[in-house]
Amino acid sequence: MAKDTSTDQQKIKTRFLICSDTHGMESLPGLTRSANQHADVVIHCGDLTTESQIHEFKAAIRLLEAINAPLKLVIAGNHDFTMDIPMFRKKVEEAHLPDDQELIEKTYGFYGEARSLFKNTGITFLDEAIHSFHLQNGALLTVYASPYTPSLGDLGFQYRPDDGHDFAINKNGSPCSVDVVMTHGPPRGIMDYTLSGVRVGSEDLFRALALAKPRPQMHCFGHIHEGWGAKLITWRKKPTPLPSHWTDINNGQSHLISKLSMLREDDERSLSARGTPVKCFATSHCSGDTHPLSRGSQTLFVNAAIEGPPQAMNSEQSNLSTQPPWIVDLELQASPRGAKLFES
């Protein structure tokens, strides 16, 4: 990717391919291994599987291996409950199947097996934390990752809404320059409507984003399949004491990029990466673009759920069975000289 040297601080144009909620899919249309590089970084925001079975994880690994990119980052989703080992143990104990341990291990693997599948695949599985990577294109990428979603259910990486969750984007309360936040679920108020018209995003996550210093350039997630889309949000200058989407977003200065009701077959943007057709929805927010991202005052939110909603309930909602992944171009700071690639 080309380097932007027009400013005092060197910035490098970096391409992200973002997906989520593939639920056992083995491939994405148009994204196959070739000599051409599709992206600098691939991000998968969880729900690699539907039932957390070993064969589904292996399919997800094949899907990611088929995408040509030097760095691939993955988190778990609520359906990937065997990654949440305490929850996995609890489910096995509650099933009361002492004589079926061999069948359980054949279907779901032994404790920790799902995680071990990602070793030596070129895919980096991230636990909840801040991670930094020195990219092959010369940029420094800092990511906050978290698989946790609010729920009253009993799947993986879930917390009760009344209990809340500490999304520590600012680690220990001190400023930390996070470029990208990748979570499984959305923040409250941003691409989090269900088909029944209820917002289910995390209030704790929204507050953490609003209070981050500086605010991240991009937040990508999935979980709510019908919330597919992207929006460039402009924040109000000062966060309120209890930030919410009602009080802390300047909607008049924000820009909707796309949502399901706007997505049509003839409106789908095909991106060509050095002559190789890629069936993705593309957006760029670098210097010189129509909507360049202003670091600190804006955040690009991307719901990249691939599996479509179960059924459209009105004419405003698309009924696509497979929704396109996102290609996003952003500018990152250059890595320090001599930095080691892909540190975490």
Automatic annotation (TrEMBL):
Residues 15-226 form the Calcineurin-like phosphoesterase domain. It comes from the Eukaryota. It comes from Penicillium salamii. This is Calcineurin-like phosphoesterase domain-containing protein. GO terms for molecular function: hydrolase activity. The lineage of its organism: Eukaryota, Fungi, Dikarya, Ascomycota, Pezizomycotina. Signal peptide: none annotated. Gene3D superfamilies: 3.60.21.10.
